[in-house]
């Protein structure tokens, strides 16, 4: 690693370390309804929304009512987005005269953004109008992220409340997540990104003359013009990263110079991806009244995140071993960043690309700045395995926290079996109903992703959508369905997802990935909130120790990650050991 690479990494770590306690404390106060800086600005808007929508902020909901509100809210949002995409050619803010989106693509895209997956089977600048991008998709950046954060707050209440039946109010939690956290940060950061050269306008594409030849026309003459797109991109990028969304305004996403123009914006994007997920364990510690419990989750997340980065960085930083016999220099020099540079932006290099790959797959964002397909086989397996872990290191906004808490229950259950005691967490007994729901939570996504992958292989005509054969083609396919099932949205590349089969099954996969996890998670919270804590004794298993932290990390890898191990063995591992890359 060069000095610049080390500085980039250290700035990222420093920003996360600074923001975690500050943002964690702030979010805890927001969800507890306490006074926070800036609430004089957004509280009146919050109260006005309650009055207009007829919401009683003092009224609370049982877990099933909370869930029903979430489902209705998401369904309405998805249907509205589908409508906007289908008629975008007749709507305003369409200076480039984009046509209506076809039904299959509109279905897939509406579900994708409504479920916080943001999988894209299209190129944004050549498919969607600025109205569709802003009011069809960007609204979901806030809404879908706020839903995940609201669920995390409800899950925490399920652990802290004693002998109650309610988890809070979905509408209040979602509105406060939006107005109190996501929108203010987006507004401020949009100004920062604008200052760094990220575009912010509603202009049509502008044709400009260039010095270098861009292409050659049919007569062989050099073409020295280029179309520069417009759009409200500086507003798009902060909430795209902050809400762990990941859908790119442009097809190149984080590698596009109008989205990510310089090292400052690159580090800011990397930090924003991890800011809220790493802050949530701190929020959890504050809300449950035990920072040691929050530290267990935060440390486990951090360790798994850093292990992934420690493996991925050298694999890509050392270059492609297939090029060494040809005498190709892959070391860092004054003019080259070094490492495996295929499919990577030279401005960002292998270090910035691998940091991004680990960041977006450890969270639930698909904000790629490089092509994961072009990684070495073992290097490409790391971001895929990060998704397979369940995206809990640190995971998505809110979803990472309650995903890790469910793994805490499983870890406590396993430890309880070892010592012959009924498992408990924060004084509440974890019994058969919670363990069964946790098992559903863990198994439903691998089942969905692998079944659809296998179905695509059995129906051989669908394999035409995959660019490669053998282990690499299998990796492309499994990565795609795994990414959709875990609501990540990044793609391995070389995969044509716009066919009818992949559009429809991909949409179904994203719906399952979103709601087949939310339902058991909120049901677990509803079960726990009714329980009264038992007294702590000398025989109580402590869940706030270094030993339990290590157990939690190991269980996360074994129980979740190794569920996919056969697919990893037949894909990237087989490709590496057979030398077929």
What does this entry look like structurally?
The chain is built from 18 helices and eight strands. It has helices at residues 3-31, 39-53, 63-86, 103-114, 124-127, 130-160, 170-195, 233-242, 263-288, 291-317, 349-362, 377-388, 399-419, 432-458, 470-485, 500-529, 546-560, 565-578; strands spanning 61-62, 166-168, 206-209, 215-216, 222-223, 225-228, 424-425, 428-429. The strands form four sheets. Strands 1-2 form a two-stranded antiparallel ribbon. It has a two-stranded antiparallel sheet with strand order 3-6. The relative contact order is 0.12. The protein starts with a helix and ends with a helix. Strand 7 and strand 8 (428-429) form a beta hairpin. The mean pLDDT is 91. Helix content is 61%, strand content 4%. It has one domain. Helix 2 packs across helix 7, helix 4 (103-114) runs parallel beside helix 16 (500-529) and helix 6 (130-160) crosses helix 7 (170-195). The chain is mainly alpha-helical and 581 residues long.
Task: Give a quick set of tags describing it.
581 residues, mainly alpha, two-stranded antiparallel sheet, 18 helices, 8 strands
């Amino acid at each position: 690693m060069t000095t610049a690479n080390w500085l980039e990494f250290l700035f990222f770590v420093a920003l996360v370390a600074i923001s975690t306690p500050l943002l964690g404390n702030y979010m805890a106060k927001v969800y507890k309804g306490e006074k926070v800086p800036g609430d004089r600005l957004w509280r009146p808007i919050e109260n006005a929304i309650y009055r207009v929508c007829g919401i009683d902020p003092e009224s609370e909901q049982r877990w099933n009512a909370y869930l029903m509100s979430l489902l209705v809210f998401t369904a309405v949002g998805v249907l509205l987005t589908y409508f906007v995409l289908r008629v975008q050619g007749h709507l305003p803010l369409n200076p480039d005269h984009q046509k209506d989106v076809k039904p299959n693509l509109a279905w897939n895209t509406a579900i994708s953004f409504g479920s916080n997956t943001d999988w894209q089977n299209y190129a944004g600048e050549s498919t969607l109008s600025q109205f569709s991008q802003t009011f069809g998709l960007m609204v979901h950046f806030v809404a879908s992220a706020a839903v995940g954060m609201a669920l995390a707050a409800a899950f925490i209440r399920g652990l802290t409340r004693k002998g109650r039946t309610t988890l809070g109010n979905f509408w209040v939690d979602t509105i406060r997540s939006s107005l109190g956290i996501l929108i203010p940060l987006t507004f401020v950061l949009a100004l920062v990104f604008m200052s760094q050269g990220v575009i912010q306008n509603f202009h049509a594409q502008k044709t400009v003359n260039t010095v270098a030849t861009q292409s050659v026309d049919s007569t062989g003459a050099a073409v020295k013009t280029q179309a520069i797109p417009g759009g409200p991109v500086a507003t798009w990028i902060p909430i795209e990263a902050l809400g762990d969304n990941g859908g790119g305004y442009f097809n190149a996403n984080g590698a596009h110079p109008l989205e990510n123009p310089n090292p400052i914006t690159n580090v800011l994007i990397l930090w924003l991806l991890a800011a809220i997920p790493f802050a949530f364990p701190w929020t959890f510690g504050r809300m449950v009244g035990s920072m040691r419990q929050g530290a267990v989750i935060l440390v486990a997340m951090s360790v798994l995140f850093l292990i992934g980065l420690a493996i991925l960085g050298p694999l890509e930083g050392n270059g492609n071993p297939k090029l060494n016999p040809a005498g190709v220099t892959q070391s860092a020099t004054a003019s080259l960043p070094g490492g495996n540079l295929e499919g990577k932006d030279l401005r960002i290099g292998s270090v910035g690309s691998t940091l991004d790959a680990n960041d977006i797959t450890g969270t639930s964002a698909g904000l790629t700045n490089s092509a994961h397909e072009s990684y070495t086989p073992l290097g490409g397996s790391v971001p895929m395995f990060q998704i397979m872990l369940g995206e809990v290191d640190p995971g998505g906004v809110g979803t990472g926290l309650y995903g890790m808490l469910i793994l805490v229950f499983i870890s406590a259950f396993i430890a309880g079996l070892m010592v012959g005691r009924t498992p408990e967490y924060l004084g509440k007994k974890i019994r058969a109903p919670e363990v069964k729901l946790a098992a559903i939570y863990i198994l439903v996504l691998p089942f969905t992703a692998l079944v659809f992958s296998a179905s695509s292989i059995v129906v051989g005509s669908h394999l035409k959508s995959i660019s490669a054969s053998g282990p690499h083609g299998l990796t492309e396919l499994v990565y795609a369905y795994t990414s959709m099932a875990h609501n990540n949205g990044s793609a391995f590349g070389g995969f044509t997802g716009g066919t009818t089969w992949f559009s429809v099954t991909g949409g179904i996969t994203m719906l399952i990935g979103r709601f087949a996890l939310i339902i058991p998670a909120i049901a677990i919270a509803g079960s726990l909130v009714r329980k009264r804590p038992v007294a702590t004794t000398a025989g109580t298993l402590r869940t706030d120790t270094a030993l339990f932290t290590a157990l939690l990390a190991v269980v996360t890898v074994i129980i979740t990650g190794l569920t996919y191990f056969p697919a990893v063995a037949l894909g990237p591992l087989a490709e590496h050991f057979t030398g077929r890359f």
